[in-house]
Amino acid sequence: MEELFAIFSILVLGYAFGSISFWGIRLGSSGVLLIALVFGHFGHEISEIIRNIGLIFFVTSVGYTAGPVFFRNFKQKAWVYILLGLLTVLAGVLSCLVFLQLFHLPTALALGLYTGAITSTPGLAAALEATKDHLASIGYGIAYPFAVIGKVIAIQMIPKILRTDMKAEREKLAKNLKPPKESKRKNRKFIQIDQIGFFSFSLAVLLGLVIGAIAIPLPGGATFSLGISGGPLLAGLILGHFRFVGRISITVPQNTLNVMREFGLMFFLMGAGTSAGVGFVETLQKYGIILFLLGAIMTLVPIVVGYFIARKVFKLDLLLALGAVCGGLTSTPALGVLISSSGTDEVAVPYASTYPIALITIVLATQMIGVFL
Questions:
Q1: Which end of the chain is more exposed for a tag (fewer CB within 10 A), N or C?
Q2: Structure pTM?
Q3: Domain ranges of the chain
């Protein structure tokens, strides 16, 4: 009963706080994270299963939304998204290495700050596995809150600074991402298990969990897996792309996807916030405000570098660039606020195009630093 009370109190207060406008900027869904941090600081806990279900629902919805145009878009610009994902991640990795040397930080603490700064749970898991040191979790907890809020603000500030005509940008995005035609299937009858799409959505989740559990061996005895974030995302992309298996429809209505995406994002942020809130103040007092500042810099550097490369080097339109940068940061909250602020789900396509290579690069880089430094 206490946990249920905490869950819905966080949701009510978080949505209310996120709706308040500060100089034209709304925290939106990240208001839930801030309220969850406070609840976590005062000892309230949210079960890990709730956070994981939230993450799975969110990334599966994103995959399904992006699936119909993902593979065509990726085929056209594959090298752009691959390079953008790599360079965005490497910008953050280099800042981590610089701070590790300049401030003589323990490797585990530096990696924790880095993975928190890019809000990468798989990266934190890789850091813990490579270093066997709980300092990684402490660093993650210090950098994580600003990382979420900083990205949310940055994603909203960039269009405002540029005085963007969002309607025109949505039209450009829609022109770039044309869904495939289904003329051959128009007159065929398909079996639909349920009208809401829960069967198909659950099938994608189940397939994603299987994919995410596959362990790929790496040099030095380490392993890599897509986990509960990458696996369901990939499964959603695949099922969203094909949409039919023989005569059986595996489509999910967009209204269902919208609800599941918002539901998932809220529960993920709630779980992540209460976890990060435990001991947050005490950790800052013990290790000093400098760690918070280093984490903030490691958050901002990849955003600036990724956006510059996307816009100036690869000449991507604004929403394509912002979606791809969110993917390069593997940032679930940033994508959530970009969907809300841009007014279109299609920004999930560049996100999904950049996300896989960024995720793999983060895990590999974190493991290499943890093992060799």
A1: N
A2: 0.72
A3: 2-18+27-177+190-372
